Input
Amino acid sequence: MRKLQQLSWLVGTSLSLFLISLARPGISQEDSLNFISEIKGNIEIKREGRKNYQKAYVGEFVNPLDKLRLRKGASVKVVCNNLAVWNSKSQGEFLVSQGCSSIRKPSMRPDSETRSSGGSR
Output
């Protein structure tokens, strides 16, 4: 009986997590996965379509068309949707897309070789 309860709980939890992911597709969209991981100093964010800047906080998701404003001496670190990290230490206003490009450049190990998938040479 106890194993049946455990199995029932596991299936219910898994199903719930799956349904939540379907109900909140915006979180899984690529553009929404840029987030602020570190702030030093005065950083403000202007959301796309908004008129005013507001204080930015660590953990906030930022879209490519959002703007970040860094005051003198401020810095921000953004983890981009392609797993790159954008560090900005310059005073000014910046589109998130300036620091987080939407395409991740492929990287290869220095000792790797490219091989053809065709027949032998």
Observations:
- The chain is about 25% helix and 25% strand.
- The longest strand covers residues 34-40.
